[in-house]
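Regression test case RT-17, inverse folding.

Input:
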């Protein structure tokens, strides 16, 4: 037997060539599951020349040759360790939109939110129809007795007014016991003399006379001594 292995080592190239020839067969069974019947390869080895001659399981080798055999596929090795996780793949395309789900139950009423800002004022609405006439109110209290005498008192003065100039105050007063109820002033002989001030005069918070001012409204014409008149309407009990 030692002599046989010595011959095989000396003729390793011939042995490898035979494996190449049979490689198709070897690969075909390499994946055979553990426990299945392994096919064997048989050969006759010449002791003198170290050659291999293929044989089968029942064939006898000629004189001077030794019969050898080996499995076409080795025993399956142990399962290797799990390799590291590969990198994440690229993001896939967005899938088609699924059908709408069924309507869920109505949720609880939420808390009231804060009041919103006041909006702009709306347009004025159309006037509504007139309401029914209300009931007659009670009679009011009797007022004080009205005046029994009314008189107009006047005061006319002459003042020179240049173009654009305003007169001094021209006043007129009621008699004692009289109350001023109105008044005014004029300068009837000129169309461009304007009444620019007209207001009552009071004594102890009681209207007692009238005050006016008249202005020359012309931008170029002077007036010598026009008649400027203030008047007051006085009433007495």
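Golden output:
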């Amino acid at each position: 037997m030692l002599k046989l292995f010595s011959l095989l080592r000396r003729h390793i190239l011939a042995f490898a060539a035979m494996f190449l020839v049979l490689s198709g067969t070897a690969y075909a069974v390499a994946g055979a599951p553990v426990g299945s019947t392994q096919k064997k390869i048989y050969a006759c080895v010449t002791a003198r020349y170290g050659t291999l001659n293929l044989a089968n399981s029942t064939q006898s080798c000629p004189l001077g040759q030794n019969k050898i055999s080996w499995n076409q596929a080795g025993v399956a090795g142990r399962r290797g360790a799990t390799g590291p996780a590969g990198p994440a793949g690229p993001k896939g395309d967005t899938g088609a939109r699924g059908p709408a789900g069924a309507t869920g139950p109505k949720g609880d009423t939420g808390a009231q939110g804060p009041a919103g800002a006041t909006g702009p004022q709306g347009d004025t609405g159309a006037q509504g129809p007139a309401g029914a006439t209300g009931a007659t109110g009670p009679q009011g209290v009797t007022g004080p007795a009205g005046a029994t005498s009314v008189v107009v008192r006047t005061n006319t003065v002459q003042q020179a007014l240049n173009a654009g100039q305003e007169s001094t105050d021209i006043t007129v007063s009621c008699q004692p016991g009289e109350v001023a109820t109105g008044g005014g002033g004029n300068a009837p002989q000129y169309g461009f003399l304007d009444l620019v001030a007209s207001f009552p005069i009071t004594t102890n918070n009681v209207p007692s006379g009238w005050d006016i001012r008249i202005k020359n409204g012309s931008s170029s014409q002077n007036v010598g001594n026009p008649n400027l008149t203030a008047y007051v309407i006085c009433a007495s009990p």
